[in-house]
Amino acid sequence: MKFLADMGISPRTVTFLNSLGHDAIHLREQGLEHLSDPDILYKALEEGRILLTHDLEFR
Q: Which residue ranges does the record assign to the DUF5615 domain (predicted)?
């Protein structure tokens, strides 16, 4: 499975998912920590990734 971790998700979670054989990336890894919520969702959709977020106000 492919995952995209939002800033509220620990990079350790991404490391763990990768250790299980998943393709997980964190926004911070790509220098995208200031990306807007709609752009984050668009990125996940474009890349076929499941978005992981802990943002209660994610639109």
A: 1-58
